[in-house]
Specification:
By secondary structure, the protein is α/β, with parallel strands linked by helices. It has helices at residues 9-23, 62-73, 92-104, 108-116, 159-166, 202-215, 228-239, 257-265, 275-290, 293-300, 307-310, 312-320, 331-338, 352-365, 368-376, 406-412, 429-432, 434-445; strands at 30-36, 40-45, 54-58, 120-125, 128-135, 143-148, 179-184, 221-225, 244-249, 392-395, 416-420. The chain starts with 8 loop residues before the first helix and ends in a 5-residue tail after the last helix. One of its GO terms (biological process) is epoxide metabolic process.
């Protein structure tokens, strides 16, 4: 770290965090160094103990932003699609419009400042540096909660739920609903290190999260997740560490084995299903027939996706398209990029800058392929009934891959303490409907507070 760097407010905050940690006795004297000068600054203890909790600050050199914009402007474009809709993928006019704004109007530094407004840290777990945000509530008896993002998301997905969960009284909720929040970056995502050997899938990650929470001093905590974060949370619940008091998921694994077998086989809707079950079956059937291409590629051949590391626009298209076009669950992303509802679906609170913040994080950290490998490392079906005994709360949003029926959910989660089907919100619920999402987390985990 250069001695000539200006003493900005964010730098003073960073040094203050280090001093606070030192005063708390968690670290010895610090030597500040650029662990990776292309990403940011990490405070390292002089004794070389990388398992210590080390404050972290994001800063990308301007040269990287200049290079990104140059690459966007130099994109070699394909021909226009031969259909009048999005059925062949991200439409040329859509991505060209986004690229123009990305290269000339978008400001990454605003996102960087937002990241640096939160206390960020790095600690080594099982040989891998894990990055996380850690916010303690001012309210007594706040519940420790670890929240895990998914793909194509990142910790940026959680920005809008941080204050409502940590500081509930400022948002119309009682102090008794407060949480201490830990928001880690998955291995190979964001500012966490990229695994250099195999084995870093949901199972190992779930065990690492328990180590992380215990290292932070939490001997009792809850876990929350959506998308891949929901998979990690479900697996943590199956592992049932004694420290885990319960979970909340907004991407439930609730599909009965026989139903899933019929869906995979492409069978018509079975007789005897309730209306909610029929709706879920139809959603899943459409998903498996034409919306799983990205997951199949990442789950089998992630290393082939070299374009994700070479082209910002190629990366953006891959992260935006789930085979859904203007349908759920990707509709909110499309609506945010276009600036208007698509196919009747609103972006909610999700904005074009939110989407570009997330994509830009993937680009600057060069994690397109390392993030994709998490699918290759996942060996369980994301939809099959979880078979969980730990107390569980489930929020089934209507714009999810499927809106889980209660009948399926209560057979998958044997100690179901809360179930609700919100009227709005989708796969990116924390982004799309942050207040509804925060209310669901509060209500879902409230029974555990007694």
């Amino acid at each position: 770290m250069s001695n000539q760097a200006p003493q900005s407010s964010s730098r003073r905050q960073f040094v203050g965090l280090a001093a606070a940690a030192l005063a708390a006795g968690s670290l010895s004297r610090f030597a500040f160094a650029d662990a990776n000068p292309a990403i940011g600054e990490t405070a390292q203890p002089t004794n070389g103990d990388n398992t210590a909790i080390r404050p972290f600050r994001v800063h990308f050199p301007e040269a990287q932003l200049i290079d990104m914009r140059r690459r966007i402007k130099a994109t070699r474009w394909p021909d226009r699609e031969t259909v009048p809709d999005e059925s062949q993928g991200i439409q040329l006019a859509t991505i060209q419009g986004l690229a123009r704004y990305w290269a000339t109007g978008y400001d990454w530094r605003k996102c960087e400042a937002r990241l640096n407004s939160y206390p960020q840290f790095v600690t080594e777990i099982d040989g891998l540096d894990i990055h996380f945000i850690h916010l303690r509530s001012k309210h007594e008896n706040a519940m420790p909660l670890i929240v895990t993002h998914g793909w194509p998301g990142s910790i940026i997905e959680q920005f809008k739920i941080v204050d409502p969960l940590v500081n509930p009284t400022a948002h119309g909720a009682p102090a008794s609903d407060a949480f201490h929040l830990v928001i880690p970056s998955l291995p190979g995502y964001g500012f966490s290190a990229k695994p250099t050997t195999t084995g870093w899938g949901p199972e190992r990650t779930a065990r690492a999260w328990v180590v992380l929470m215990k290292r932070l001093g939490y001997d009792r905590f809850a876990s929350q997740g959506g998308d891949l974060g929901g998979i990690v949370t479900n697996i943590m619940a199956k592992q049932a560490p004694p420290e885990l008091i319960g979970i909340h998921v907004n991407f439930p694994a609730a599909v009965p084995a026989d139903i899933l077998k019929s869906i995979v086989a492409g069978d018509p809707t079975p007789a005897g299903l309730s209306d909610d079950e029929k709706h879920a079956y139809e959603q899943l059937s459409a998903n498996f027939k034409k919306k799983r291409g990205y997951a199949l590629e990442m789950g089998t051949r992630p290393q082939t996706l070299y374009g994700l590391a070479d082209s910002p626009v190629g990366l953006a298209c891959w992260l935006l398209d789930h085979g859904d076009g203007y349908g759920q669950p990707a509709a909110a992303l499309s609506a945010a990029v276009l600036g208007h509802p698509v196919n009747g679906h609103s972006a909610g609170a999700l904005t074009r800058d939110d989407v570009l913040d997330d994509i830009t994080l993937y680009w600057l950290t060069n994690t397109g392929i390392s993030a994709a490998r998490f699918y290759w490392e996942s060996h369980s079906n994301f939809f099959l009934a979880a078979d969980v005994n730990v107390p569980a709360a489930v929020s089934a949003f209507p714009g999810e891959n499927y809106q889980a029926p209660k009948s399926w959910t209560e057979h998958a989660y044997h100690n179901l303490i809360y179930f609700n089907r919100p009227e709005t919100g989708g796969h990116f619920a924390a982004w799309e409907e942050p207040m509804i999402f925060a209310n669901e987390v509060r209500a879902g985990l409230r029974p555990l507070r007694t």
